[in-house]
Amino acid sequence: MTDRVAIVEEAPQPKSSWPIILILLVGAVWFSNLDYRKLVRPDEGRYAEIAREMAATGNWITPRLNGTGYQDMQHRVPKIEATTRDFGWRPVVDMQVALRRIYDA
Question: Can you name the residues that pair with 68 across neighbouring β-strands?
Answer without folding.
Answer: 65
